[in-house]
C-alpha cells in the first residue's frame, strides 16, 4: 500500500488526490482548519435542532416525506432509518477503486464545513479508508440525483457498523467485525448526518476522474498505433506537418499530429507509396487520425474542467453557508458530470472506430500495398489475423451502443418530488466499460501494425523509425509474438492488451521520442 498522505482541507480536492486514494492506497488526513470548520457548521445544526421550527434534513423526513416533523427523541432513529432504507443497491459489487474514490470524495465534502456533521463522522470515514475497509457497493441503485444515494448509503451503513465490507485482504465480511479488528468505533448518527453522508455526486465524479486519467493514456497510445499503421502502409507523414494543423487551431489535433510525427521521425518507410502504385492521398483513417484523436483530446480537456469544478464543490442538501444560514438547494443534480461522461463515451467510440478501420486496411491485400492477406504466413493455409479483426469489430460495435447517452433519460422518483434525474451513475458505469473496450481495440491495432512492420522490413531494405523499432522490441519482450504460422491468438491479444493498459506501449515509444502529449 502506498503510504503517501493526502491532506484534505476545506477547499476541495485535486484529481491526483482522488487517484492516489482510490488506486494508490494513499492515506488520508484531515487538516486542522477543516476539522475546525466542520465543528463550526455542527454548532449551527445543533442550534437549529433545538428550535421548534422544522428544518429539512434536521427535524423532518426526506424527499416526498419531508412534510413530517420529527421529534428530538426520534432523530437518531430517523438518520439510521434513512441510511438503512437507502442502502437498496442490487447486482454485482462495483470495483474497489470506485468505492474508495466515492468515499474519499464524500469525505472531501464533509471537510468543506458545509454539511453540518460532527468531526467524529469525518474522522471515522478517514479511518475506514486508511484501514483499507471497502464497503460493498452494488451496480444498481443510483439515478444520479439527490446524489448517488444507494451507493453512498451502503458506505454510510458500514460507518455505522452495519452491512458488509471488503477487508484489506480482499475478503468480504460483516462490517462490525472489520471495524472491531481495526479499533474503529461505529458512528451513532445524529441530526443531518445520515443525509450528509449520501447526498452527493461522488460515485459518478470518482469514475469521471479515473476515466479521464485512463483516456489521457489511451489517446497517446492511439497516436502511436496510428503512426505504426501509417508506416506499415507506406503512408506519407507530410500530413503531420505542424503548419497544416496550425491553420485549424484545435489544440488536441496539433498534439496528436505532433505525437505521430515524432514517432515516425527517421522512418525509412513513409512516402514509399509513390514507388509502386502512386497515391495522391492516404485514406481518411490514416490521414485524419490526428483530427479524430485530437477532437477526443479536446473533449477530454472539457471533461477535466468539469471534474475540477466539481472537485472544488461542496455537494449536499441542505448546506450550511458562511453566514450560518442553512439552505436547501439542487446542487446534488448530476447533470454537469453526466453530460461529460456521455461525451467521453462518444469520443471513445469514434477513436475505437477509426482504429478498427486502420486494422482492417492492414489485413486487406487490396488496400495494404503489398502486405500478405490478413498478414498470414501462408495465406490459405493460415488465416493470420482475420479473426482478431472480428474481435476488434465486436468491441467497436459495443462501443457504439455504449455511446448512447444515459443523461438524456430520466425516470421520476420519490412520488414525483424528484421528477427529473441525471442518470450520471449509469453514464459513468458504461464509460468504464467503454474505456476497457477501447484499450483492447488499440491493442489489436498494435498487434496488427507491429506484425505488418516486421513483414515489411524483413528483407532489411526498409527500416522503421527508431521509435517504431523500440516499440517492436518492447512488445516482443512483453510476450506478444511476431509474424509466423497460425497460433492460439487469444493469449497473444491479452498480452497486447496488458502492454497497452499498463503503459508499456507509451514508455517504449517515449524511450526514443521523449515525453509525448
From TrEMBL:
Coarse class of the protein's main subcellular location: cytoplasm
InterPro entries: Aromatic_Lyase (IPR001106), Fumarase/histidase_N (IPR024083), HutH (IPR005921), L-Aspartase-like (IPR008948), Phe/His_NH3-lyase_AS (IPR022313)
Key words, A-Z: Cytoplasm, Histidine metabolism, Lyase
Coiled coil: none
Modified residues (2,3-didehydroalanine (Ser)): 146
GO biological process, one term: protein homotetramerization
Modification note: Contains an active site 4-methylidene-imidazol-5-one (MIO), which is formed autocatalytically by cyclization and dehydration of residues Cys-Ser-Gly.
Pathway this chain belongs to: Amino-acid degradation; L-histidine degradation into L-glutamate; N-formimidoyl-L-glutamate from L-histidine: step 1/3
Reaction catalysed by this enzyme: L-histidine = trans-urocanate + NH4(+)
EC number of this enzyme: 4.3.1.3
Annotated localization: Cytoplasm
Cellular component GO terms held in the UniProt record: cytoplasm
GO MF annotation list: histidine ammonia-lyase activity; phenylalanine ammonia-lyase activity
Cross-link (5-imidazolinone (Ala-Gly)): 145-147
UniProt record similarity statement: Belongs to the PAL/histidase family.
Name the record gives this protein: Histidine ammonia-lyase
Organism placement in taxonomy: Bacteria, Bacillati, Actinomycetota, Actinomycetes, Kitasatosporales
Gene: hutH
Amino acid at each position: 500500500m502506498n503510504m503517501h498522505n493526502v491532506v484534505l482541507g476545506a477547499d476541495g480536492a485535486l484529481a491526483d488526490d482522488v487517484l492516489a486514494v482510490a488506486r494508490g492506497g494513499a492515506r488520508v488526513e484531515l487538516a486542522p482548519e477543516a476539522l475546525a470548520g466542520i465543528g463550526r457548521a455542527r454548532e449551527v445544526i445543533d442550534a437549529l435542532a433545538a428550535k421548534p421550527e422544522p428544518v429539512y434534513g434536521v427535524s423532518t423526513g426526506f424527499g416526498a416525506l419531508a412534510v413530517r416533523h420529527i421529534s428530538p427523541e426520534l432523530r437518531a432513529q430517523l438518520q439510521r432509518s434513512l441510511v438503512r432504507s437507502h442502502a437498496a443497491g442490487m447486482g454485482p459489487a462495483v470495483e474497489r477503486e470506485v468505492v474508495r474514490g466515492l468515499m474519499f470524495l464524500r469525505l472531501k465534502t464533509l471537510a468543506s464545513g458545509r454539511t453540518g456533521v460532527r468531526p467524529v463522522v469525518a474522522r471515522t470515514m478517514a479511518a475506514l479508508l486508511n484501514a483499507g475497509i471497502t464497503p460493498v457497493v452494488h451496480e444498481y441503485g443510483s439515478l444520479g440525483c439527490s446524489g448517488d444515494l444507494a451507493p453512498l448509503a451502503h458506505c454510510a451503513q458500514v460507518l455505522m457498523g452495519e452491512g458488509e465490507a471488503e477487508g484489506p485482504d480482499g475478503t468480504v465480511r460483516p462490517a462490525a467485525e472489520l471495524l472491531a479488528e481495526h479499533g474503529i468505533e461505529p458512528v451513532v448518527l445524529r441530526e443531518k448526518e445520515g443525509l450528509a453522508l449520501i447526498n452527493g455526486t461522488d460515485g459518478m465524479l470518482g469514475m469521471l476522474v479515473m476515466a479521464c486519467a485512463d483516456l489521457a493514456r489511451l489517446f497517446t497510445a492511439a497516436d502511436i498505433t496510428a503512426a505504426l499503421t501509417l508506416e506499415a502502409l507506406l503512408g506519407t507523414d507530410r500530413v503531420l506537418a505542424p503548419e497544416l494543423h496550425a491553420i485549424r487551431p484545435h489544440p488536441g489535433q496539433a498534439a496528436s499530429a505532433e505525437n505521430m510525427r515524432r514517432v515516425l521521425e527517421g522512418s525509412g518507410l513513409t512516402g514509399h507509396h509513390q514507388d509502386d502504385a502512386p497515391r495522391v492521398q492516404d485514406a481518411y483513417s490514416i490521414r485524419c487520425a490526428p483530427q479524430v484523436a485530437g477532437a477526443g483530446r479536446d473533449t477530454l480537456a472539457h471533461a477535466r474542467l468539469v471534474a475540477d469544478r466539481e472537485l472544488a464543490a461542496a455537494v449536499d442538501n441542505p448546506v450550511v453557508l458562511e453566514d450560518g444560514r442553512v439552505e436547501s438547494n439542487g446542487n446534488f443534480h448530476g447533470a454537469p458530470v453526466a453530460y461529460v461522461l456521455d461525451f467521453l463515451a462518444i469520443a471513445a467510440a469514434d477513436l475505437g472506430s477509426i482504429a478498427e478501420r486502420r486494422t482492417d486496411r492492414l489485413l486487406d491485400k487490396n488496400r495494404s500495398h503489398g502486405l500478405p492477406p490478413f498478414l498470414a504466413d501462408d495465406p490459405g493455409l493460415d488465416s493470420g489475423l482475420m479473426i482478431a479483426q472480428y474481435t476488434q469489430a465486436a468491441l467497436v460495435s459495443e462501443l457504439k451502443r455504449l455511446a448512447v447517452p444515459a443523461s438524456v433519460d430520466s425516470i421520476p422518483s420519490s412520488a414525483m418530488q424528484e421528477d427529473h434525474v441525471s442518470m450520471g451513475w449509469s453514464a459513468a458505469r458504461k464509460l468504464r466499460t467503454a474505456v476497457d473496450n477501447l484499450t483492447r481495440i488499440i491493442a489489436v491495432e498494435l498487434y496488427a501494425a507491429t506484425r505488418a512492420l516486421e513483414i515489411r522490413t524483413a528483407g532489411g531494405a526498409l527500416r522503421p523509425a527508431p521509435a517504431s523499432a523500440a516499440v517492436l522490441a518492447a512488445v516482443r519482450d512483453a510476450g506478444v509474438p511476431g509474424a509466423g504460422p497460425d497460433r492460439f491468438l487469444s493469449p497473444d491479444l491479452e498480452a497486447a492488451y496488458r502492454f497497452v493498459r499498463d503503459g508499456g506501449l507509451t514508455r517504449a515509444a517515449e524511450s526514443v521520442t521523449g515525453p509525448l502529449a
